[in-house]
Amino acid sequence: ELVEQDIFALFLAHYLVRSILYTAARSFHDDPLKLSFPQGVHLVQRKLPFSGALSPSGAAPLAPPLAEGSP
Known about the structure:
mainly alpha
């Protein structure tokens, strides 16, 4: 079961990097296949520590809590 979770996590990480590369290429009107996957992985590894969204401590919530009585 843990091996399946590890494989699933690798697939998700691969999809994440490819998605970031695709979005970056499209924003500059470039072909996504011209971007290097290893360089994309390196970029994500460099920038991820500065992203508080994935912190397990919960110090940086993804969205502010809704006020009571709001729709």
